UniProtKB/TrEMBL annotation:
InterPro entries: B3_DNA-bd, B3_domain, DNA-bd_pseudobarrel_sf. This is TRANSCRIPTION FACTOR B3-DOMAIN FAMILY-RELATED. It comes from the Eukaryota. It comes from Salix purpurea. GO terms for cellular component: nucleus. Its main location: nucleus. The lineage of its organism: Eukaryota, Viridiplantae, Streptophyta, Embryophyta, Tracheophyta. Gene3D superfamilies: DNA-binding pseudobarrel domain. One of its GO terms (molecular function) is DNA binding. Keywords: DNA-binding, Nucleus, Transcription, Transcription regulation. It is found in: Nucleus.
Length: 126
């Protein structure tokens, strides 16, 4: 069993800018309807914080789980599917719920943090 400190879950994300996962959005992230999340971020940051059954399910070949995703700036919650692709990469499906309503462009930075079972995100300043 993996033990992860809950200290980061007590932090105020907006005040402290605690965004352990950072990514520059690609044209594919914006146009495909899915956000590719780096393997090391999913496996080293998100999966250890998941309940064991969800972590095991996601780690399987073509594993998939539903997670809540929260837009900190818009104060909007989404339910999206985190999927392990055949090539071992991970994607957040239904990401177009965000890109279509926010008109986000490729090249923008995004910060993400897992807190109390929810993936929080914000668009980072240039």
């Amino acid at each position: 069993m993996n033990y992860v400190s809950r200290f980061d879950e007590l932090l105020d994300l907006n005040a402290l800018h605690n965004w352990p996962i950072k990514k520059q959005l690609t044209p594919g992230d914006v146009k495909s309807g899915r956000l590719i999340i780096p393997v090391h971020d999913v496996e080293n940051y998100i999966m250890p914080r998941l309940p064991v059954d969800k972590s095991e399910k996601l780690s399987r070949y073509r594993g998939r789980i539903f997670i809540d995703v929260y837009d900190v700036e818009r104060e909007t919650r989404y339910n999206m599917e985190l999927v392990r692709k055949m090539n071992g990469r991970y994607s957040l499906e239904e990401w177009d719920q965000v890109t279509l309503t926010r008109n986000i462009q490729a090249g923008k930075g995004i910060g993400m943090s897992w807190v109390n079972g929810v993936l929080f995100f914000r668009i980072l300043s240039d």
